[in-house]
Amino acid sequence: MNELAPSTVELLREVGLDPDAVSRIVANALAEDLGPHGLDVTSVATISAEQTDLADLVARGDGVVAGLPVARATFDLAGARTVEFEALTRDGARVSRGDVVATVFGPTRALLTAERTALNLLCRMSGVATHTRAWADALAGTKAMVLDTRKTTPGLRILEKYAVRAGGGTNKRMGLYDVAMIKDNHKLAAGGVTAAYRRVREAFPDVPVQVEVTTVAEAVEAVEAGATFLLCDNMSTRVLRDTVEEVGDRAELEATGGLTLEVAREYAATGVDFLSVGALTHSSPILDVALDLRPRGYA
Description:
single chain; alpha/beta
């Protein structure tokens, strides 16, 4: 497998992405497109190996861009590091329809081989960032922040959660390993809130613990057991206000469950610290971006 250019590795690290993980994701996506023989049959048939071209990556809509370093990694791997990639904006920036977000120059076959994979990832990540920015804007001026969830596309979690950050949101937990989340089934299996919390604390004393609660009484029990982070699931704004009043500053509170942009500020006004929104990663439409070759002889 081709390797990433050192400058690409450095860039990925700068934005908080693991270069090895990104390389694996991109390589798998390219392999899916190129098939068992690793061949772009159309480009090989129609374009000479010596031909080079310059192309623009152009936004086809308004939104927030995310994933430019990942697109760069895609051209690295598809073009054996022969493609020059220049980002003309940064992840997290707002873009308008028609804006050129990056240019690429190199062997034309490599540009077209990388095109769809690079755009699939860039469009997906930019869509997540755009959706997240709408939530961050809706919560502006309140203390509440928007969080993502584990409802991510299998295999793309680190990219989608990065896109949430680029859009102004906050990551909660990356997986089952870094935060213990005591949900209804855990409480039922363990014999209640207090029992479940104590078992997690005994087994993993250094792992952060969050407890899902559905009533004020459950919230109080969880805090008295030692919990400092509560997930308030499907509570009405009235119940949330009561929970905030009862819990006070003894725990951070996260509201979740069917939240929409239309009610974001209403829920933030209850005094909770976070609103978690699975739709950031499971239902965001893409931000369309295209790759356009410049006419021959045009610089």
